[in-house]
């Protein structure tokens, strides 16, 4: 597979940089990840208020993730040449309404229905946002812009999920969802103000989308994504009981510790952004090995508060580089079809979040927490050989 340069109509590389737009899209990814993962810190209060178990409450993560996996390739297919600027604004409007509905939901089924709408917004927005770096900045700046866009992921772990957890603990979980709706409205206005027109010169087509499965680099990146993300969320969805029951940490400290996880994640994101441009397979290999080792060690070395906190920070540092590294992998593996490859990648990423949360929910209700961590670590570590086998592919070097 040789490296080629995509036509201008597909990449639409600008002569100047639109850094304000890059930052606005980063705010969007911040909101997406916050909306998707917010229930992780609210499983206990939501379950108590709506009379469901923590395992059932975990479906608030699983459902939007699976819906997002379907929406990621479907939305670009359906909208054709629609201006991506207007599409992102419309999806953020849907996110605003969906989170308001979540805040007001009087019963568990209605809350899950609202989370379905959240999934549509996540999948559609992320599929488009993941490919925007090549359209907003010159080619030499794409790795930096990609790191900024996916810096929103780490920022959500730093600010979004922990603050939501604190709001849910100090006030009410409904207030947390209501605040998220207000934030979505603010992001909508920002996107409308700073994004340039982004009409697709060559819309995503079913044939071009399916054709990405013939690309060995894309297939390897998708497999690595599936293993790493599924493994991570198998354990991380239930990080609160892990910290509380295995490490003996007071439940009131979970929010601040998730903040520390997110700070480490931001550092990991930009560290990956600084190294991934050269050889993304190496960065992904290091991430998979570090994540897998951390989760496998947790049942042994995380049985004290100090050990648990130390491993949590290492976990956050490693996972922080996942989105930037794997998105860069997709850009390099399919330089002539960035939006198509990104749509497939986002679909697999979100499906993996849902499957990981589902696997964790099944395990946490039937097995010891140690077994959940062992399963998660084994899945994540299995991605390392996949990354290693791509080292000779020229588009990924």
Overview of the structural elements:
The structure is a single chain. The chain has 397 residues and is an all-alpha fold. The protein has one domain (12-396): Growth Hormone, Chain: A (Up-down Bundle), CATH 1.20.1250.20. The protein has helices at residues 8-11, 19-37, 43-50, 54-57, 59-79, 84-104, 108-129, 133-136, 142-149, 151-170, 173-194, 206-211, 216-236, 239-246, 254-275, 280-301, 305-319, 322-333, 338-366, 369-381, 383-389. The chain is globular and about 55 Å long. Residues 1-11 have low confidence and may be disordered.
Total beta strands? 0
Query: Percent helix among the residues?
Result: over 70%
Order of helices and strands: HHHHHHHHHHHHHHHHHHHHH
CATH superfamily: MFS general substrate transporter like domains
Gist of the model:
The protein is mainly alpha-helical and 397 residues long.
What keyword list fits this structure?
single chain, mainly alpha, Growth Hormone, Chain: A, 0% strand, 397 residues
Topology of this protein?
Elements: H1 8-11, H2 19-37, H3 43-50, H4 54-57, H5 59-79, H6 84-104, H7 108-129, H8 133-136, H9 142-149, H10 151-170, H11 173-194, H12 206-211, H13 216-236, H14 239-246, H15 254-275, H16 280-301, H17 305-319, H18 322-333, H19 338-366, H20 369-381, H21 383-389
Helix pairs in contact: 2-7, 2-9, 2-10, 2-11, 5-7, 5-19, 6-7, 6-11, 7-19, 9-15, 9-18, 10-11, 10-15, 13-16, 13-18, 13-19, 13-20, 13-21, 15-17, 15-18, 16-17, 16-18, 16-20, 16-21, 18-19, 19-20
């Amino acid at each position: 597979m040789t490296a080629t340069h995509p036509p201008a109509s597909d990449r639409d590389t600008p002569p100047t940089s639109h850094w304000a737009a890059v930052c606005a899209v980063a705010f969007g990814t911040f909101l997406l990840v916050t909306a998707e993962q917010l229930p992780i810190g609210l499983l206990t209060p939501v379950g108590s208020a709506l009379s469901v178990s923590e395992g059932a409450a975990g479906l608030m993560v699983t459902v939007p993730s699976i819906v997002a996996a379907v929406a990621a390739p479907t939305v670009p297919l359906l909208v054709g040449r629609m201006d991506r600027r207007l599409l992102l604004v419309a999806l953020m409007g849907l996110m605003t309404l969906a989170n308001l509905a979540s805040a007001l939901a009087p019963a568990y089924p209605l809350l899950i229905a609202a989370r379905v709408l959240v999934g549509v917004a996540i999948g559609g927005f992320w599929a488009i946002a993941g490919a925007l770096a090549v359209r907003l900045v010159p080619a030499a700046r794409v790795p930096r812009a990609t790191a900024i866009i996916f810096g929103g992921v780490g920022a959500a772990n730093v600010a979004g999920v922990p603050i939501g957890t604190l709001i849910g603990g100090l006030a009410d979980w409904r207030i947390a969802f209501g605040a998220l709706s207000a934030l979505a409205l603010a992001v909508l206005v920002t996107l409308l103000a700073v994004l340039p027109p982004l009409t697709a010169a060559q819309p995503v087509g079913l044939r071009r989308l399916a054709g990405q499965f013939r690309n060995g680099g894309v297939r390897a990146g998708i497999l690595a994504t599936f293993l790493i993300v599924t493994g991570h969320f198998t354990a991380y969805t239930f990080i609160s009981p892990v910290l509380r029951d295995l490490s003996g940490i007071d439940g009131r400290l979970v929010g601040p510790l998730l903040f520390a996880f997110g700070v480490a994640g931001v550092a990991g994101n930009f560290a990956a952004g600084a190294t991934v441009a050269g050889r993304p397979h190496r960065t992904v290999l290091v991430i998979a090995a570090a994540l897998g080792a951390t989760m496998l060690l947790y049942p042994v070395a995380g049985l004290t508060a100090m050990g648990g906190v130390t491993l949590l920070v290492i976990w956050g540092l490693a996972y922080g580089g996942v989105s930037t590294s794997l998105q860069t992998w997709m850009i390099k593996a399919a330089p002539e079809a960035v939006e198509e490859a990104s749509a497939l990648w986002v679909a697999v990423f979100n499906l993996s979040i849902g499957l990981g949360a589902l696997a964790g929910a099944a395990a946490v209700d039937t097995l010891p927490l140690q077994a959940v961590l062992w399963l998660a670590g084994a899945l994540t570590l299995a991605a390392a050989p996949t990354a290693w086998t791509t080292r000779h592919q020229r588009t990924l070097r």
